[in-house]
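Example 9 (inverse folding). The structure is encoded as follows.
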């Protein structure tokens, strides 16, 4: 049920251009979500050297799960971007992005981790747990998306002075 149908059930009158404005806002938000999904997949995949590229050479081989988990994380972060309201917290989505990156990235290629923990510690303890860290990142992104989607659906749409619906959940 779209906003116009909800308002009709509640007896709220809408301006003639409100339905078009809602569709336009949905199209813009969908385009932003698609851009974030594609950008995340391309940037993190390239920096993590999940495929051959001239920028980064991977020191440890990528397993079979990394690209699938990166794709799932990218789609979830894109959907989160499309649903997210500007005034909401993004801590869970941000943490999922960091965990997902650490999970798919090469531990030896990550200079910060290498300086903090050393190569032997990373290969001994971190490498076997890396894929679970990426899966945890995907799970956190799914949790952030579900929480944001539920709260966006429960938030009433405010009215602007002209009487046209300017739904904060659709911008």
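The amino acid assigned to each position is listed next.
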């Amino acid at each position: 049920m779209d906003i116009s149908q909800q308002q009709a059930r509640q007896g709220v009158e809408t301006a003639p251009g409100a339905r078009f404005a809602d569709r336009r806002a949905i199209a813009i938000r969908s385009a932003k979500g698609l851009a974030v999904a594609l950008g995340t997949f391309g940037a993190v995949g390239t920096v993590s050297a999940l495929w051959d590229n001239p920028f980064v050479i991977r020191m440890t081989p990528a397993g079979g799960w990394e690209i699938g988990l990166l794709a799932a994380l990218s789609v979830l972060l894109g959907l989160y971007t499309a649903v997210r309201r500007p005034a909401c917290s993004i801590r869970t989505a941000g943490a999922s992005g960091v965990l997902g990156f650490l999970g798919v990235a090469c531990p030896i290629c990550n200079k910060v981790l290498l300086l903090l923990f050393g190569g032997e510690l990373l290969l001994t303890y971190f490498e076997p747990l890396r894929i679970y860290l990426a899966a945890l990142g995907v799970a956190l992104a799914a949790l952030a998306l579900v929480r944001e989607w539920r709260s966006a659906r429960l938030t009433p749409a405010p009215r602007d002075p002209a009487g046209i619906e300017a739904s904060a959940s659709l911008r």
